[in-house]
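Write out the 3D structure for:
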Amino acid sequence: MHDTILREITPLTQSDCFTLFHRAKSEFDFPLHFHDEIELNFIRNARGAKRIIGDHVDEIGDLELCLVGPGLPHGWFGTGFGKDRIEEITIQFHKDFFDEKFLLKNQLVFIRNMLKRSLRGILFSRETTEQLAPRIMSLSKKEGFDSVLELMSILHDLSLSREYRVLSDTGFQGDELFVYNSRRIEKVMEFIYSSFDKQITLGEAARIASMTESAFSRFFKLRTGMTFIDCVTEVRLGHASRMLISTTKTIAEIAYSCGFNNISNFNRIFRKKKGCTPRELRESYAEGTRVFI
C-alpha cells in the first residue's frame, strides 16, 4: 500500500523529543503521506477541506484536532481559503517518546490506550479541541524541559477525553492486533483476521472462546465495544480499503475477496460506514498522491 504514497522524512532527530511547526497558510499543498513519527495536528479556519486518514475520508469543520499514529497515511487537501487564513500547528514526536516500560505503568494506562488507538487515527471533539487549543498554541513559547512536560500534560489530558472518534477501520493497517486484556478475545480476533475472506459465524467464534453464543456475544461487546458482526464487517472493510488503494482490482473483485457475497450490499455498507463509495475512496487517494509530486 505504501508503495504509492509519499514517505515523509521529518526533521525530527533522535536528539529531540518532539518538533513543532506553527504555520499560517492559504491552502493545503502537501501530498498524502506517512511517517514513522506520531503526529498531533491542530487546524482552524479551513472549513470544507478534505481530510484523509487511513481509509477515512471526510470534510473538516472550522476547528480540528487529530492524532495520527506511525505509518498511517494521512493528509489534508483544499484551496481558496484566503491568504494566510488557515492556522495549522503540527507536533511530531517519536514512537518511543514514552518508553515502552514506562507506558506499562498504571498511571500511563490512558495514554497507552490512546497511542494504540492512534494507529487508526483519532479525531477529538470540538469541545476537547477548544479546551486544549490555548495550550497547544502556546507550546512553542516554552523551551527545554518545560516544553516536554507541557506536551506530556497535553497528551495526558487528551487521553482522558471520552469525546473522540477513531477514524480508520480495523484491518486497514494490516493484522495489527490490539490488546483486549483477554486471551479469549485475542484468539477470536486472530481467527477473524485469518478468515475475514470466508464465511464467519458467531458459533465458530463462540467455540474458539469456549463459551455459549449468548455469553460470548455479551463478553465480546463488553471487551471490544462492538458486536461480533460489526467487528467482522469492520475488518473486512479495512482490508477492502487497502486493496482499493494498493491494487487495480475491480470493486467487485475486492468485495468478493474480502468476504462480501453481494456487490450491492458491499457498496451500501461501505457508504454507510465511511460516508463515501469505494470508487470515491480510490479516487481520493489517487488525487492525494498526485498533489505537487
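The first strand starts at residue 6 and ends at 7.
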